[in-house]
Design a protein that fits this description.
Length: 479
């Protein structure tokens, strides 16, 4: 397990040093990790928790780390001695991987001595932001595929080895059936998938020779790339000859792959040719710079594609290359007293929610579909036996009374007093959770273009606390 303790912005360490010199290092702080609204999706699929756990479990400063920090000449020896025994002793609550999360809802809530909680900021954001972004993109791609399988093919275009490995994992959590990335498949327990490249075809005297050689190598797993020279005049006819040969020997070929050209037109023509040749059971696989918008267009054109390989535009989340995740303090304890904290800004979107919180998802009993989420203070309990009014977080005149409903707390305890109390599921189990959670939402919330806005409201108690703190801050500024 890698030690990523120094994978942090330097200001985390300078703040830790300041807390230490001020005698504040043991004050208990709570931080929320959440993301702000962004244009492409009104919700995200949580991913990255397993790697976040591994990071926290292995949090320590090695002798080499301390020697490096000594060389920066930014810290005294007392602080460096304190770092020698540094371990995480706090509590973490989080949404599990595969959970559906909306803007401003904490994905993770960290309560720990402030020096510890502060150090986690940069690494947790790096891990959770990236994997949640890719899982969300994969969800969108799989939704647009309309039931066709999607494989993650982004290894060679990912922005570095870690992005390739953990991006493939996140893509599977978001719905992809597997990946071409062998190391990621080995690490996270899925079967790697792939066929052959154009170089295979060009390494033989003829295309037919190349196809026959591949069929000899994989007689029961033969999927042929047909666009090296001419898809419809050469590739598909030669594939049909090979498939005829395989079937005469009792084997079952898989199909063909298209990697260039007009995928809608070529897939329809190829499907017709395969069917007429008696190979209606052979699948058509397609790749070539595909994303959810291309997939929607292909579906509109009636493309005959069974499986997609999606690479560059998914592994880089091409249209939205970053998730606006942030990590903000929301509560500070001093001598047993809680002091709710919040950031105040001229931009309403950057005003944070104070206090230690939880989030309830409210479901209609008759349909098991989600109605709204309510961000509450942690000591609040929603009584589902009585009518409950949900209210817009800003426009308080917008409200709705619920009667026949039930509520789910969205958080699971991960660490308690520094001890891991959670067993991570496999990536495939987290994928199943993604599918299950998506079933809990009406289609209008999940559509890819201009989805209906899902209600994420503040409880009255949290709203009143927020207004109280804003008022106090304004009065202090006026003075």
């Amino acid at each position: 397990m890698r030690n990523l303790t120094l994978m942090t912005d330097f200001y985390e360490l300078t703040m830790m040093y300041g807390y230490f010199l001020q005698g504040k290092q043991d004050e208990i702080a709570t931080f929320d990790l959440f993301f702000r609204p962004f244009e492409e999706s009104n919700f995200c699929v949580v991913a990255g928790l397993q790697q976040a756990i591994e990071y926290i479990e292995n949090l320590h400063f090695s002798d080499e780390d301390i020697e490096y920090l000594r060389g920066t000449k930014s810290f005294n020896e007392d602080f460096l001695d304190w770092l020698k025994n540094f371990r995480f002793t706090g509590t973490v609550r989080a949404m599990e991987e595969g959970s559906i999360v909306f803007p401003n809802e904490p994905i993770m809530i960290v309560t720990a001595p402030i020096g510890q909680a502060q150090l986690l900021e940069a690494a947790l954001l790096n891990i959770i932001n990236f994997q949640t972004l890719i899982a969300t993109k994969a969800r969108r791609v799989n939704s647009a595929a309309g039931g066709a399988g999607v494989l993650e093919f982004g290894l060679r275009r990912a922005q570095g080895p870690d992005a390739a490995i953990y991006g493939a994992r996140a893509a599977v959590i978001g719905g992809c059936t597997s990946t071409s990335n062998v190391l990621s498949a080995k690490m996270f327990g899925f079967e790697p998938k792939g066929t052959h490249a154009h170089s295979w075809v060009m390494s033989f005297p003829t295309e037919l020779d190349a196809f026959m050689a591949y069929a000899d190598t994989y007689p029961d797993g033969c999927l042929l790339l047909v666009d090296t020279y001419d898809t419809l005049k050469s590739g598909v006819p030669n594939a049909i000859k090979v498939f005829d040969h395989l079937k005469s020997k009792g084997h079952k070929p898989l199909g063909i792959r298209l990697d260039s050209g007009d995928l809608a037109y070529l897939s329809k023509q190829a499907r017709k040719m395969l069917d007429e040749a008696g190979h209606s059971d052979c699948k058509i696989f397609a790749s070539s710079d595909i994303d959810e918008y291309v997939l929607m267009s292909l579906r509109d054109q009636g493309a005959k594609i069974d499986i997609y390989g999606v690479g560059t535009k998914m592994i880089t989340s091409h249209t939205t290359p970053s998730l606006g995740g942030v990590y903000k303090i929301c509560d500070l304890q001093s001598e047993g007293v809680h002091y709710p904290k919040m950031k105040i800004s001229d931009n309403p979107l950057k005003i944070t929610n104070p206090g230690i919180k939880t989030v309830y998802r409210l479901f209609e009993r008759s349909t098991d579909k989600a109605i709204a989420d309510v961000i509450c203070l942690a000591d609040e309990v929603i009584d589902c036996t009585k009518p409950y009014t949900i209210t817009h977080p800003l426009e308080r005149w917008k409200s709705m009374e619920l009667t026949d409903f039930y509520a789910k707390d969205l958080y699971t305890e991960i660490f308690r007093d520094g001890k891991l109390v959670y067993q991570c599921p496999t990536a495939m189990q987290s994928q199943a959770k993604t599918f299950s959670n998506l079933e809990g939402f009406w289609e209008e919330y999940k559509r890819l273009l201009r989805p209906h806005i899902y209600k994420v409201d503040l409880s009255d108690k949290l709203y009143e606390l927020k207004q109280k703190l804003i008022g106090e801050r304004r009065r202090s500024v006026v003075k």
